[in-house]
Amino acid sequence: TTTEQLNKQLTESRNKLEEKQQVLDIQSRHTIELEADNRVLLEKLGTQKSELEKLHETIKLEFQNVANAIFDEKARSFNELSSEKLTNLLNPLNNNLKEFKDRVNEVYDKEAKERFSLTKEISNLMELNRKISDEANNLTMALKGDSKAQGNWGEMILENILEASGLREGEEYFVQETMRSPEGRKTEHEATGKVMRPDIIVRYPGGRDVIIDSKVSLTAYSQFMASENQKEKESFSREHLRSVKTHIDELNKKDYSSYNVRSLEFVMMFIPNEPSYNMALQAEPTLWEYAYARKVVLMSPTNLIAALRMAMDLWKREYQVRNIQEIVRQGSALYDKFVGFTATFEKIGAELNSARKLYDEAFGQLSTGKGNLVQRVENLKKLGLTPSKKIAGNYLKTNTEVSDGNDLNQEDPEESRLNEHLLTNKHQPIT
Asked: What pLDDT score does 286 carry?
C-alpha cells in the first residue's frame, strides 16, 4: 500500500541518514584527534624554539665575552690589522647566526599557519566529497555499459582526490608507475605475464607504500536505480554485488605485496561512486570482511579522503622533524665553527706578538742596539763619505738618544777603532 511504501522509504532515508551521521562522527573524531596532535606538536615546537633561542643567546654571550677578552689583551696588536679584513672574518659568523634565526622563525610560522588551516581543509575536503558524489550520480547514466569509460572516470576521480588532499605527485604519490625489481627490471605477474602497474602508489614516511586501484561497477547499479520493479531491483543488486566481488578477487590474485617489498600486505580498492559502495555493503554486510580476508580494503571517497588526510599529516610531521634535525645540525655546526674561530683568533694574537718581537729585534739591529747599522753607516761619513741622501731623522734621533744613555766604559769596539784611526790619520778624508 502507499503507507507501507512511505514507511519503507522513510526507513531507508533514516538508514542513509544514520550512515551519513556515522561518517560525520568519524570525521569529527578524526578532526579532534588531529587538533590534539597539533597542540602537542605546537607545544614541542615552542619548547624547541625556546631552547634554540637560549642556545643562540648563550653563543652570542660567549662570543662577546671571548671577543672582549681577546680584544682587550691584543689591543695593541689589532691596531695593525686592516678593518676590511676583520669585517670579512666576522661576516660569515653573523650571516650564519641570521640564517639560523630565520630558519627557526620559518618553521614556527609554517606550523602556525598549518594549524589554523587544518579545520578549513577538512571542511573543504568534505565539500569536495559531496560534489564528487553528486557528479558520480550524474555521470552514472552516461557511463552505463562502457567499461573503459567507467575505468577512466574512476581513475580521474581518484587523482582529483589525491590532488585535493595536498599530496604531491612524484613525491608522496605516483600515478601508473611500473613496478620494478631491485635490479631495475620491469616486474611481470607470474601467472599472466603482464607488467605490474597499479593505478596509484602512495608513499608514507619511512619508505612504506600503499597501493590503490580504482574499480568501477556501475552497470548493474544504474539498472537498479532505473528499475521500479522490486524483483528486478533485487536481481540487479545481486549482480552489482557479484561485480564488486569479482574486482576484489582480481586484486587478490594480483598480490602486489609479493612483488613490492615496500608495499603493505593489503591493497586499497577505491569505489568512486559512494551510493554504489553503500549499495554493495547493504546487499552483503560482511562484504568488508570478505575483502579484508583477501588483503583488500574497500575505500569510498569519504574513507579515502580521511586516509589521505592522515598520510598528509604524517608527511607534515616528517618534514617538521627533518627541519628540526636540520636546525640542530646547523646549530651544532655553527657552534663548532665558532670554537674553531676562537682558536684561530688566539693564533692570530700569538703570531702578532711573535711578529712584534721580531720587529723590535730587527729595529734594534737597525737603529737602537749596540753597534747598530745606522751608527755604522753614519761613521762612514766621518771618514769622508759624501752620499747624496740622508738617513731619516727619526732613526738618527733614536740612535743618538740610545748612544747618550750608554756607559762610556761600554763603547762599541768598532767605534773605538774608528776614533783611533781618525786621530792617527789626522782626520784625512777619503779622496
From this structure: 93
